[in-house]
Amino acid sequence: MAEELSQRIRHQLARFLVVGAAGFAVDVGILAALVYGFGYGQQSGGLIGSRLVAFAGAIITTFLLNARYTFGASIRRARLTRYVLIQVLGAALNIGTFTVLVLGPLNRPLIALALGSAVATVSNFVLVRRYVYDWR
């Protein structure tokens, strides 16, 4: 029984990572279209606004894909507000971990970025699994 649960969690985590990559592609695609295609990169407000729109597109994409593909959950029963809050918390953990490491013991930005991303990914997976898609 414990091995079956462990296998299911590993399977879900692998799918969660694939969905995260898809979300990143959506994020980059929307940002590139807005900045380069529509010219919103000419002023700072356009850059920030474009980034927020791209981030929102990525969140919606990953919310829907994680519901069906990763957790096999009903989208109707999933909780979008909780999902968004967890994603914002994950972004804060990512940036916070990066900042602490870069300004502290590890002056290697790319390693700090990878560690920040790892912390956020694990946190997001655990919280989303528990509080958005009702996996106990």
Walkthrough of the structure:
With 136 residues, the chain is an all-alpha fold. It folds into two domains: 1-74, no CATH class; 79-136. 81% of the residues lie in helices and 0% in strands. It has helices spanning 2-37, 44-70, 80-103, 109-131. Helix 1 packs antiparallel against helix 2 (44-70) and helix 3 packs antiparallel against helix 4. The chain is globular and about 55 Å long. It starts with a helix and ends in a 5-residue tail after the last helix. The mean pLDDT is 92.
Major sheet characteristics: none
The termini sit apart by 14 Å
Gyration radius (Cα, Å) is: 17 Å
Give the low-pLDDT segments: none
Instruction: Give the overall shape.
Output: globular
Helix count, DSSP H or I runs of 4 or more residues: 4
Strand and helix order: HHHH
Strand proportion:
under 5%
How helix-rich are the residues, as a percent range? Answer: over 70%
How many strands appear in the DSSP assignment? 0
Work out the count of structural domains: 2
Mean pLDDT: 92
- Which structural class best describes the helix and strand composition? mainly alpha
